Amino acid sequence: MIYDDRICALGEGPLWHPERQQLFWFDILGKRLLTHGAEWRFGDHVSAAGWVDADTLLMASATGLYTFDIPTGRRSLIAPLEAGNAITRSNDGRADPQGGFWIGTMGVRTERYAGAIYRYYRGEVRRLFGPITIPNSIAFAPDGDLAYFTDTFGKRVMRVRLDKHGWPEQPELFLDLRAEGLNPDGSVVDAAGNVWNAQWGASRVACYGPDGTLREVVQIGASQASCPAFGGADLSTLYVTSAADGVKGRHDGMTFAVDVPHKGQAEHRVIL
């Protein structure tokens, strides 16, 4: 089902705000933040967000992390993010259970190995992993001790254990999609620990159990599925962004909503 028919060149970063009961998402190439019935435009690429309180998001841009005031549309710099690197922009990101925020960077022209994954935690931005070409699949298990991420370019999703403060140990392989030729893009983890992965070019979101076995597939009406998020009153609606860049399908770039027999996690609050 189509949730919003506005075309995003590169839809990304869907976020269900648990206090506002409202979905936000981004068009990275269009430099827009969208919500149902409204949008905000920026002078730089914006890509992902976490929620701070009922009226405030933490937003990632090409050069920094900002607080964004929803009622006024104003943003304020919290921390720079590769501000001196003109070839990169932000990409996939998500708040972690400990109140931090993970964010990936990549080349504006997808330059190979130009990016990395960082974590913002209580005023500090620390580089976690890199070099990476297309950082995606940043997601967290419900018990707070596991994180996931991928370099879409390598077609493998990694899993990493977290300490009590949310800092990662060494990553290990979770999914290897090279043999299937699948491109892992954004992911979200549901309340049971299943990993829902949008697969770029395959018109689908695939659900994998905590052991990595394929459990089910949700098809969407756009070829370039980019990122899923759970939302709705009972967190059983799967929202999926997509991208129109480079394709010409009728529904490419739209945002979709699918009711599923699973319940997601409420998105975690970012602690500034």
Contiguous helical run count: 0
- Uncertain stretches: none
Give the class from helix and strand content and strand pairing. Answer: mainly beta
Q: Tell me, briefly, the overall form.
A: globular
Please outline the helices and strands.
Blueprint: E1 2-4, E2 11-17, E3 22-27, E4 32-35, E5 38-41, E6 46-53, E7 56-61, E8 64-69, E9 74-80, E10 88-95, E11 101-107, E12 115-121, E13 124-132, E14 135-140, E15 146-151, E16 156-161, E17 172-176, E18 183-189, E19 195-200, E20 204-208, E21 214-219, E22 225-231, E23 237-242, E24 255-259
Outline of the structure:
0% of the residues lie in helices and 54% in strands. It has 272 residues and is mostly beta strands.
Structure write-up:
The chain has 272 residues and is mainly beta. The protein is built from no helices and 24 strands. The chain has a four-stranded antiparallel β-sheet, with no helix packed on it. A hairpin with a 5-residue loop joins strand 10 and strand 11. It starts with a strand and ends in a 13-residue tail after the last strand.
